[in-house]
Amino acid sequence: MPHAVPRRLARLLRGRLHYAWVAAAATFLALLVSAGVRGMPGVLLVPLQRDMGWDRATISFAISVGIALYGLTGPFAGAIMQSIGIRRTTLLALVLLALSVASTTLVHHPWQMVLTWGVLTGLGTGMVAGVLGATVVGRWFRKDRGLAMGILTASTATGQLAFLPLLALLIEHMGWRGATLCAAAATALVVPVVWLLLPDHPIDLDLPPYGASEPEPPRPTLGNPLFLAFAVLGRGLRHPTFWLLASSFFVCGMSTNGLVGTHLIPLCVDHGLPEVDAAGLLAAMGVLDLFGTTFSGWLSDRFDNRFLLAWYYGLRGLSLIYLPYSDFSFEQLSLFALFYGLDWIATVPPTVRLTADTFGEHDAPILFGWIAAGHQLGAATAALGAGILRGEYQSYLQSFLIAGAACVLIAAVLSTAATLRRRSQPA
């Protein structure tokens, strides 16, 4: 029986811990390794440039393809989860990801880099991304949704950032191909965990969602995943909240994994820092984000999420404008890591909460997938654009100023939207 182990574990935990937290833990692990793989190009960019002799714009193009597909896969992954289940979709994604990461060790030409790190890993990581967390939280939680989403979101930044020093050390001692094989093996190890511990729905274990009193039958899904994804998008496009969240998430992607996740280590190398030290800076930001995003989830259950997002984007924009004018000393980089790290993807829990509150349990995961696609399109734009600007001007200054200004602008838009909404509510 596919749910024999979860049933036994749920009985053992009865009265002490709801199985929703076990499902969240298995999801956390899957998101962790997927995000670690997604973050690898940032630490591979300089070694690839040295080994292959390619320029940064060529490598950045392959990375941007992966980031774009990572985002565009999201809404279809959400629809597939509704059609074949969370468990099967996650297993399929992890197997694809492990095989595609392993295959990157065979690249010798730029088009092969685009195929492996671009297309295949983009599809694999896109199926195990924010939409997975949103779907699990939507099915398993009626209470503490913001907190649960904050924890799952934190896994994304933690995996993307905290493993980078280890990868940098592996690259230093084993070469980038050896480090990549280690990442593929780590991804494969998560497959049995998901297979054993992640049921599709609480009703599979005869349980209610966490915070509910009675089991809830899953809503039947009609139509194929492709039609469903576009049908839900059509409903979302008619709502101004969708446009507000999609545009803000585009800027979020520009200012996080597209720019900082991909180009912060090369920026630090340009200023004389060793790659391992630069990766350590990203790791520190990942640890800080674990606290910042979890706390953001707690806040999203209690305060106006539009105002929270306005604060997050505003502070992030100021930190990005500050960085290129710093002297890259330990003290000034630590100051940047503190403010930026706490804010790395603290935007996700309020965005998920606004999506769920506006569009409901059935449409919200798929629409969040489309909103997340906007995030990754923004990230792909920044990853490629920063590589091109670095080649043209021999500097990342322009890229950081553009991303910082965009964050400040979107903060002003969100603050205005929150103020107008508050004034429109009856006293």
TrEMBL record:
Q: Which InterPro entries does the annotation name?
A: MFS (IPR011701), MFS_dom (IPR020846), MFS_trans_sf (IPR036259), Proton-linked_MCT (IPR050327)
* Record flagged with keyword Transmembrane helix: yes
Q: Which residues form the Major facilitator superfamily (MFS) profile domain?
A: 19-422
The entry lists its GO molecular-function terms as: transmembrane transporter activity
Pfam families, alphabetized = MFS_1 (PF07690)
Q: Does the keyword Transmembrane helix apply?
A: yes
Q: Which UniProt keywords apply?
A: Membrane, Transmembrane, Transmembrane helix
Concerning PROSITE patterns, the annotation shows:
MFS
- Membrane-crossing residue ranges in chain numbering: 17-37, 57-79, 91-111, 117-137, 149-171, 177-198, 242-266, 278-300, 307-325, 367-388, 400-420
Name of protein: Putative MFS-type transporter YhjX
Q: Which organism is it from?
A: mine drainage metagenome
Q: Which gene encodes it?
A: yhjX_7
